[in-house]
Amino acid sequence: MAFLLMSITLLHLVTLAMLFIATMEKSWWVWDSTKNSDLWYNCMYDNATETWLCASSKETEWLQAVQALMVLAVIFSSVSFLVFLGQLFTMSKGGLFYVTGLCQIFAGLTAFAATLIYTLHHSEILGRSPDFSSGNFGYCFILAWVCVPLLLCSGVMYVHLRKRE
Question: Whole-model pTM?
Answer without folding.
Answer: 0.86
